[in-house]
Write a structure and sequence with these properties.
The N and C termini lie close together (about 10 Å). Strand 1, helix 1 and strand 2 form a beta-alpha-beta unit. The chain is built from 5 helices and 8 strands; from the N terminus they run E-H-E-H-E-E-H-E-E-E-H-E-H. The radius of gyration is 14 Å and the shape is globular. Helix 3 runs parallel beside helix 4. The protein is of the alpha/beta class.
Amino acid sequence: MQKILVSSCLLGTPVRYDGTGQKLVHPQITTWQSQGFIIPLCPEVAGGLSTPRAPAEIRLDKVITNDDEDVTVAFKLGAKRALQLCLSHNIRFALLKESSPSCGRNTIYDGSHRGIKVAGMGLTAALLEQNGIKVFSEEQMPALLKALASC
């Protein structure tokens, strides 16, 4: 079994913008953790942002908080650190938090800070995909399991 990059918040670590985690309860996650196959990371924290922090959304290729602070540099740094971690551990699969401006795989918020989701990818998810790392969201566990089984 190969290692998998997993959003720390999905493991229950309180790293989300609001200081919470969002634990994904799935028996396979528990098994992978006990076997040491999970490499946890919060790209936003890895990029230097604090917890809690202002909510941020992607707007016109920048990541902007709800109080109009541009945090793009921190998000890009976190994405680069996630990629470096994947490369150093030969990780080919990532399980990331859907709708996050870092980790969103299929959806992100539209940048208006009104709770509207649109199709799109977060900065980390996009960078990983561009470098050949297959990214799945917590909503895609069956697809991730199938992809891992075919390796």
